[in-house]
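Running co-folding for adenosine monophosphate.
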Amino acid sequence: MKFLVCISQTPDTTAKVSFNADGTEYNAAGVQFIMNPYDEWYALVRACELREALGGTVVALNVGPAANETTIRKALAIGADEAVRINADPKSAAFTAKQIAEYARNENFDIIFLGKETIDYNGSEVGAMVAEYLDLPYVSYASKLDLDGNTATLERDIEGGVEVLEVDTPFVVSAAKGMAEQRIPNMRGIMTARTKPLKEVQPVAFDESVEAAQFTLPPAKAGVKLVDPENMDELVRLLHEEAKII
Amino acid sequence: MVLIFAESPRGNLKKAAFEAVTYGKKVADLLGTSCIALTLGAVKDAGELGRYGAGRVLNAADPAFNNFDSQTYAGAIADVAKSNGATVIITSHTSSGKSVAGRLAVRLGAGLVSGVNSLPEVNGGNLRVKKSVFSGKAVAEYEITSPVKVVSLMGNAVKPEVSGDPVSVEAVSANAGAGRIRVKEVKTQEGRVPLPEAEIVVSAGRGMKDPSNWGIVEELAETLGATTACSRPVADSHWRPHNEHVGQTGIAIRPNLYIAIGISGAIQHLAGVNNSKVIVVINKDSEAPFFKAADYGVVGDLFEVVPRLNAALKKFKAAH
Ligand SMILES: Cc1cc2nc3c(=O)[nH]c(=O)nc-3n(C[C@H](O)[C@H](O)[C@H](O)COP(=O)(O)OP(=O)(O)OC[C@H]3O[C@@H](n4cnc5c(N)ncnc54)[C@H](O)[C@@H]3O)c2cc1C
Ligand SMILES: Nc1ncnc2c1ncn2[C@@H]1O[C@H](COP(=O)(O)O)[C@@H](O)[C@H]1O
């Protein structure tokens, strides 16, 4: 079995969000970057578990500049066998999806894993686009994935429940919480990661049709109004008369 | 023409569809054009979408559409979009809407912005749309420059508005093609508003001490007609089901009212809830970071405050 795991890099979950003076670009100065948690904790770990059980190869793929190699090495330390970096600084999900699809087109992956969304731009766009480019089925927001021969059984998170479904390989899947448990890379993983292959691929041309125009910070909250814990009638009154939500 | 994919999980139109049609009608008005709603599979009362502003309501009833498959759905929506000359296609930002939006963008050579939360600005042939990014910590504006545009609409971003009358449903034939996903079973919790759609959410964290204490939370939710949620460590220790976990790595929600009980307000928790309109925090530690993000705060022991709040709400309900 051959698995592709698409990994992205995002600012650390506690990073302060700020933009340049004219609000056109994210200010990355001093920001610590991590592997997007959905990609790392769920997609990558499940792909590694399946490879451990069934044999095969896990390829980690990132579309990003050379600076992302630390994150890519972490994917190798967690268990990916090899890695590919498509050398570009993606400006949109559509660009990223095009690059992933062009790379995957002739590689015959059985399953292409992604995370459910990136925690920075919160797009949840790339997976469906990759699936469409490759004319493959797409199972989004999967919280469980088992494989028996060429048939996978998955649970997909839907509003207020789950859908249980079957699909044959090859397919594209996006991973949600529950698909696997987070793994901390061990010393051996970190050592062997250094010698695992990391290939650089050049991007294909792409015409953007969405442009980021402006970033702003939301207006600050007015500040909390404290209510006496003995007087919950007062809280109810405020929710009714002031906030007008009950 | 503006085409709205009005989703109907298991044959029922839900709030998400009414929101999308309400929004689509407004976008059509801005562009000086008409709007059409498309439903797929067997669906009850599709003509109702006319009340929310759909000029025409189309239905492709192939039984293959009774189960969701992004591939067959996107094929059908794209066909209808092409044959009606749609320039804007709107889906809901839901598990199915998000899964077809990207496919539609590729199929139609369209620019996509997902999770938009307000009406676009028309800028020549472009649309400028807004969405929340960095888990609610920033707002981004994007300009879609392609002739055909796709957006998915965030839940609770617009209120469903009645602006017309029901219309008769027109049958269209859209080829379902060969779906490759076989849905075996759909497990839903009946009688509960799913978290992403909930207008009121009552959520609790590790301050609850033990899963057996959740009765007071459930009772409060019951009184408010709210859906329950929890922090991540609570779901991770199996005190509550994982589909209740809100936050950066769980579900992102934007209810009108979010009540946080015994939750410290870590940044990753806030990431999933800070788009709520009003936040009430109950915590015994006045230094808990959550108070900085709250509108109303109660510093006190949740085991006393929550039953007291529930009693006050019951009294209020009885009087109103
Ligand atoms: C990458 C990453 C992603 C994460 N994603 C998420 C996520 O999606 N969602 C999420 O929730 N967390 C997430 N976390 C975890 C997060 O950082 C916090 O650890 C978590 O939110 C804390 O949960 P809590 O508030 O329930 O528990 P605690 O931090 O232990 O807080 C319990 C609170 O209860 C109060 N309390 C205790 N007893 C009482 C009482 N009797 N009456 C009133 N108040 C009381 C305490 O004062 C305290 O503030 C993530 C962490 C990381 C690193
Ligand atoms: N630059 C990237 N390189 C590789 N994979 C990516 C990249 N950006 C996004 N992805 C994948 O696409 C998923 C969804 O991203 P998004 O659609 O941007 O929310 C992520 O969880 C990753 O698996």
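Result summary
The first helix of chain A runs from residue 37 to 54.
Residues 2-218 of chain A form a domain with the Rossmann fold fold (CATH 3.40.50.620).
Job closed.
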